[in-house]
C-alpha cells in the first residue's frame, strides 16, 4: 500500500474533484460519510454521548459532516468548534451552516479561554481538531484541551490523524498531541503511525476509501510503501516441477564464536526453512558437533581456530552469504572479515557483529558491493550512522547512507523499515513476541535463503522481513508473547508461506440459502 506525502494528498484531493466533476465540499461529504458509516456499523444507534471536537480547517469540516449525520440518525451528539483562529476554510463554513440548519443544538463555540465540557470515561471523543494542515504547535489552551481528552479516559477516535501530529515531522511536546485509541485515515495511513517516536499517538488505525482518483493512486510514485500480503504475493516464486536442490541456491552462513554457536544454528535452520537448496555454515571448531547434531541438513566448514573466526576460507561457490551472527569482534576476526569483504563478489547479508565491525572501521564500508543488505537493530544502526535527533532525522541519515554505499538497510524494530536509496518500505507484520534473543539471526537466515532462490536483494529483504513477522504472528497464537522464542519463528516460517495462499474462511450459508439446499 502506498503511503502518500502531505503534498500528494492535497494534489490527489484536487485532481479527484476535477476528474470526477465534484466540488471539494462533496469530497468532504464523502469523507465524513465514510467515518459516519464506520461508527454507525459499530454503534447501531447506541446512545453513548459522542463529543465531536472540530477545528476550523477541513479536518474540522469532516467533523461537522460526521456530527450532522450522527444527529440525523438520532445519536447523542455534542458538537464543539475549537475556535482559536479565524482562518476558517470554505468547506468548514459550508458545513457549519448545514449543521445549524439540521439541529437546534448548534455547535458550541470554544474560544481559546473557554472552560472544557465534561467528558465521562464511557463517552466517545471524536477528534477533528487538526489534520494534515497543522503548521505550528498548538497553543497552551489547545494543549490543555488535549490533556482534558486524555484525562477523561474516553475512547478517542481521531479523524485522518491525531490532532497535533504532523504528517512529516515529530512533534516536540507530547502534551500537544491527542492520544487516540483509533484513527480513521483517508485513503492511506500516514508514515507517523509506524515510527517509534510517534506510533504511540494512535493504538490502531484504518484507512477509509474516499474514492480518490484511481489513476492518481496507481500512477503516483510514493517515497514510502507499507508492505503486506498484497505486495508480497505477486513477487512469490513458485517451484518448478523438474527443479532440484541446485535450482534453489547454496547459502553460506559465516559467524559464531565460543558461546554463540546458537546464533548460527538459528540462521542455518532459517535459511533452510526459507527454501535454500543447500546450506553450509562456516564456524569456529567448537561449533562443529552442535551444528552437525542440531542441523543435520547443513554442511559445516570450520575455521582453524577453536573459539573464533580467524581465517575465512572455503572452496564452495555459494549463491548468497549471510555473515556476522554471533561472530564476535576479535582483532583476528576483524582482519579476516576485512579480507573477506575485499575478495567477495557474492550477494551478501551483513548482521550483528559484521555491522559492529564496519562501524568501528568505517573505511571498510567502501568495500561493500552494491545491494549489500545490512540488518541493524537500533543500537547497531546508531553505531553505523551516529546519533539522530528523531525518527525523521534517522530516516534521512539512513537514506543518505544507503545512497552513498548503494546498500539496503533493514532497520529492525516493531515496524521494520527497509531503506534503499530514497525509498522506505514499512513492514506490517510482527509483534512484541519477537523481542527475544536470536530472532534477528533468524531474519538474516531467511533473507539469505531468499536471495539463494533468485530474489533480488531488495525483494528478498522485504519478503524476508514480511515472512519473519508473519511467522511470529502465527506462532504467537500458540505460544503467547512471553514464551515465543526464535526457534518457534523458524518452525512457523512454513505457516507464513502457506498463509500467502490462504483463502478467507468460508461464510456460513445465509438462512434462506440453507433451506434451498
Ligand atoms: N482537501 C480535501 O478535499 C479533503 C480534506 N480532508 C481533510 O482536510 C484535512 C486537511 O485540512 P486543512 O488543510 O484545512 O487543515 P486542517 O484541518 O488540518 O487544519 C489546519 C487549519 O488550522 C490552522 N492551524 C494549523 N496549525 C494550527 C495551530 N497550531 N493552532 C491553530 N490553528 C492551526 C491552519 O491555518 C488551518 O486553517 C485533512 O487532514 C482531512 O481531514 C478531507 O475532508 C478529505 C477531503
Ligand atoms: N516489539 C517488536 N515488535 C515486532 N518485532 C520486533 C519487536 N522487537 C523486536 N522485533 C524484531 O525482532 C528481531 C530482533 O532482532 P535483533 O535485535 O537483531 O535480535 P538478536 O540479535 O537477538 O537476533 C528484529 O527482526 C525485530 O524487527
Ligand atoms: K484529527
TrEMBL record:
Question: Per the UniProt entry, what are the Gene Ontology biological process annotations, in alphabetical order?
Answer: metabolite repair; nicotinamide nucleotide metabolic process
Cofactor dependence is on:
Mg(2+); K(+)
YjeF N-terminal domain mapped to chain residues = 9-218
Molecular function terms from GO: ADP-dependent NAD(P)H-hydrate dehydratase activity; ATP binding; metal ion binding; NAD(P)HX epimerase activity
Task: Return the InterPro entries for the record.
Answer: Carbohydrate_kinase_pred_CS, CARKD, Nnr, Ribokinase-like, YjeF_N_dom, YjeF_N_dom_sf
Give the cofactor binding note. Answer: Binds 1 potassium ion per subunit.
Which residues of the sequence carry a binding annotation for K(+)?
59, 127, 163
Annotated YjeF C-terminal domain residues: 228-500
**Which residues are involved in binding AMP?**
412-416, 440
User: What keywords is this UniProt entry annotated with?
Assistant: ATP-binding, Isomerase, Lyase, Metal-binding, Multifunctional enzyme, NAD, NADP, Nucleotide-binding, Potassium
Write out the catalysed reaction.
(6R)-NADPHX = (6S)-NADPHX; (6R)-NADHX = (6S)-NADHX; (6S)-NADHX + ADP = AMP + phosphate + NADH + H(+); (6S)-NADPHX + ADP = AMP + phosphate + NADPH + H(+)
Q: Which Pfam families match?
A: Carb_kinase, YjeF_N
Q: What is its EC number?
A: 4.2.1.136, 5.1.99.6
Q: Which residues bind (6S)-NADPHX?
A: 58-62, 131-137, 160, 263, 326, 377, 441
Q: Which SUPFAM superfamilies match?
A: Ribokinase-like, YjeF N-terminal domain-like
The record's note on quaternary structure and interaction partners says: Homotetramer.
Recorded family membership? Belongs to the NnrD/CARKD family.
Which HAMAP family does the record associate with it? Answer: NADHX_dehydratase (MF_01965), NADHX_epimerase (MF_01966)
Q: Which PANTHER family is this protein grouped with?
A: ATP-DEPENDENT (S)-NAD(P)H-HYDRATE DEHYDRATASE, ATP-DEPENDENT (S)-NAD(P)H-HYDRATE DEHYDRATASE FAMILY MEMBER
UniProt function note: Catalyzes the epimerization of the S- and R-forms of NAD(P)HX, a damaged form of NAD(P)H that is a result of enzymatic or heat-dependent hydration. This is a prerequisite for the S-specific NAD(P)H-hydrate dehydratase to allow the repair of both epimers of NAD(P)HX.
Name of the protein in its database record: Bifunctional NAD(P)H-hydrate repair enzyme
Which gene is the coding source of this polypeptide chain?
nnrD
